[in-house]
Amino acid sequence: MVDSAVSTILAERLRGARASVGFSTRRVADELPGEFALSHATIANYERGKTHPSMEVLAALAMLYGRPVDWFLESAPPLEGVVFRNLGGKSSETDLNQFSTSVHQWLEAYVKLERRLESPLNRDVTFRVRGNSGAGVAMSLRKHLELTEQNAVSSVIALTERFGMRSIEVPTSLSVDGLAGRFGDEFVVALNPLTSNGRARMLVAHELGHFIFKHHEQGLLEDQEAEDKAYEFASHLLLPSSMLQRAFESRSLMQLLAFKQTFGVPLSSMMFRAKRSGLIDKTASKWLASQFSKRGWMKKEPGVVVPDRATRFERLIETAAFDQRIRWAELESITGFNQEQLEERREFALRVCLGRYGEEL
What we know:
Strand content: 5-15%
Radius of gyration: 23 Å
Number of strands: 4
Helix content: 40-55%
Order of helices and strands: HHHHEHHHEEEHHHHHHHHHH
Largest sheet: 4 strands, mixed
Oligomer: single chain
């Protein structure tokens, strides 16, 4: 007999493992070895907790999904309050669930490995919010961090980790910059590695704004007022008003590009904020828009922003396996992923760090 708690965990794990590889229940039935003649309905019943696979069948499913058998019987905190960021195009609920399931599984692996290595996030920022203005709080934080207005935030990812926010890169074919949510008692962000470096920095700074104002605890991640405040915070954290003004002092595209590259912010964000604040008038805004349009910059911005990506998990994999602190068999058991998947994850992170995701190294 399987008790109800284990049954629920097993059903959830079976659903999640199948979703992560993108198989239908029919595909699973077709892919299983011949000695396991299972129908797709039987597999669906396993995933609903109505019936339970034998250990032999579970082992076959584990091999098909690339998971250790033990992983299917372990519990993990749920990924809750998920909000997709800058979701474009038509995305089915199945596709969105597959992405969030993949995020959930990699987050679980990340946290478990971190605990095994006794290497928690370095939560060393104690910052008290005073006031209710996104801009004001951003400038207070810059002062707290001893950043002058001329200084760029070198790594937004590292800053959020100092607050205890966890970030990870998870590839997806969806037209989405990433997602935010809660994993247990942590606020987490998952980035699509195809998201440009400038947009990724803005997104993570935006989520830091939500975190500082505790919008995630209040269920306000999609509230428009909260969104505006978080955007204002992110924009001023990365580029103070005095620097934005200097960027637009003259109608110089080269000057705008220089500020984009120095402060790591998208041109589109600079334009939006300058127009919204009245820093540029309608004539200047129209001229800049025409210049951007004829050069194709509306679709693909020029200028290089140094990669600022979420790769701490992969660095832990390197520490564990490639420095031989943990044997591969134990690493597989801890993370729920096999050696090949973890080595691929390391190579994936290297490409992301070099700004060459999707290319061969």
